[in-house]
Every structure is written in structure tokens, then in C-alpha cells.
Amino acid sequence: MNDDTLRTLLNSTTTIAVVGLSADAARPSHGVARYLRDQGYRIIPVNPTVEEVLGEKAYPNLDAVPVPVDVVDVFRLPNAVPEIVEAAIRIGAKAVWMQEGIAHPEAARRAEDAGLIAVQNRCMMKEHFRLVGPKFD
Fold first, then answer.
1. What is the pLDDT of residue 134?
2. How far, in Å, CA of 50 to CA of 36, rounded?
3. By C-alpha distance, which of 71, 46, 74 is closest to 60?
4. pTM, whole model, 2 decimals?
5. Chain centroid, CA 112 distance in Å
6. Angle, nearest 10°, between helix axes 124-131 and 3-12?
7. What is the mean pLDDT of the chain?
8. Do 41 and 73 form a contact (C-beta atoms < 8 A)?
9. Quick one: 59 exposed, middle or buried, by C-beta within 10 A (0-12, 13-18, 19+)?
10. What is the pLDDT of residues 13-57, one digit of tens each?
11. Residue 99 CB: number of other CB atoms within 10 A?
12. Reduced to 3 states, what is the DSSP secondary structure of residue 46?
């Protein structure tokens, strides 16, 4: 994945569904989602074990999210990725972003074959910071 593609994706995204977003502020998913929210993205928590995270209603799965999603940001083990990719395709997401430590080449190919951008083993927060830069209020 080249920097221009990532930069374009980050600049054109408005809504990010974070699959596996934890309500625990000490968890990486929480810190990344908080950073992305602070950069102006709408964050949609997808986690069946919580009701709300970062002031947003949580949904049990991607199919339950009632608004259009640009990027599905994945904080789940690699074996969960194929099902998440299928759901991302169903809901019309533009991209599936697998966080650091998460990769699934077959699922990434499936996403790309369906017209989605697939990012593997990269932190969305770090890439945003590097390619777009943080906003400070």
C-alpha cells in the first residue's frame, strides 16, 4: 500500500466503524479511536459487549450499523477477519483497515476483489499522524 493511496483514503474518510473497540481507556483500540475522533472522524463502536464508547452508541456487528461507513478499522484476531470483510462488503464500506499485528492475506484479496481498499498490519492512528498530521485545538 503506497502513501498516496493511504493519504487519499484518510482524507476522504468521514466515518470509521471500529470493530473490537473497547470501553477500557487502557486498550489500544480505545486510544486509536479517541485519536481518530479528535481528528474529526465519526467513530462507530462495533462490539457486542458494550453499549457505548467515546459517547457513541455501540453496535453488535457491522450489519447493525445504521449509517454509511467509509472504513472498517479492525481490532480483532486474524481468524475473525474474513467474516468482518464479508460484512464490510455487504454494508458498502470503502476500505478494511487491519491494525498492527493483524493480517489476513486471503481476506484482504477478497476485499480488494470486491472493490475495497485493504490495509494490513498498520496502525491507522500512526499512519494518519505520519501522512496527514494531527489537528490541535
1. 81
2. 19
3. 46
4. 0.95
5. 16
6. 100
7. 96
8. no
9. buried
10. 999 999 999 999 999 999 999 999 999 999 999 999 999 999 999
11. 24
12. strand
